[in-house]
Amino acid sequence: MKMKKTRGIIYLQLILSTFFLTVLDQWTKHLAVTHLQNQSDISLIDGVLSLHYLENRGAAFGVFQNRQDAFFILTVVILAFILYVLWRMPVTKKYLPVRILCFFLTSGALGNLIDRIRLKYVIDFIYFSLIDFPVFNVADIYVTVSMIVLLLLVLFYYKDEDDFVFLSPKKKGK
After folding, report:
1. 115 is catalytic
2. Of the listed 25, 41, 69, 124, which one is catalytic?
3. Pick the catalytic residue: 115, 140, 162, 163?
4. How far apart are CA 152 and CA 130, in angstroms?
5. Where are the domains of the chain?
6. How far, in Å, CA of 60 to CA of 125, rounded?
7. pLDDT for the residue 61
8. In 18, 22, 107, 174, which residue has its Cα 20 to 30 A from 11's Cα atom?
9. 18, 106 contact by CB (below 8 A)
10. How far apart are CA 146 and CA 17, in angstroms?
């Protein structure tokens, strides 16, 4: 009974945190449309960081332009995989970092999916001009930072062979 209750709390956390983070992403995009669309760039740190409105019809950072159908399918597959991981993941403190990263990944994927469905493009507005990095948004930050942290965790924290054995299909009769 305790395990079901704990899992229920985890799914409630997923729903609430994903809702909050996705609303935050959508709010920043609303602000970008309201204050940046058809306007000059706003320099935050001269020569380093500015706000620049862009309608991105590609994937993260503008790659694969005008492939909305492929991005929709890919996003649904990724979200399904994240839910599968959360479903199979043991409810222990050891996996709390992965669980939190899943919340951010889900929010980032949903934030950009909402744009793709509603607008047929994603609103980007953060420009790191120091290295001429592609314009991005808050959802992109969620996804990128989560993937970097996940990679670091897999390389340096979850090093044992059986750390992700919970993702393996269960054998019948065992």
Report:
1. no
2. 124
3. 140
4. 25
5. 8-158
6. 13
7. 53
8. 174
9. yes
10. 14
